[in-house]
Amino acid sequence: xxxxxxxxxxxxxxxxxxxxxxxxxxxxxxxxxxxxxxxxxxxxxxxxxxxxxxxxxxxxxxxxxxxxxxxxxxx
Length: 75
Description:
Layout: H1 2-10, H2 12-30, H3 36-44, H4 48-59
């Protein structure tokens, strides 16, 4: 079943649809929108801005061991 799903996702037409939807949701969530749709996705998903910030910090090698504040909600 998983391999069937994987094959289905990797079909070029499906892959592009998934990427387009993901980008749309990302933009809705990361902009300062007060819409119901933005709130819905923000409540379901990650704090993308915080996740990106921590990822950049980790990848820049400014820290050797990533530490995340307990209050940070990444996902």
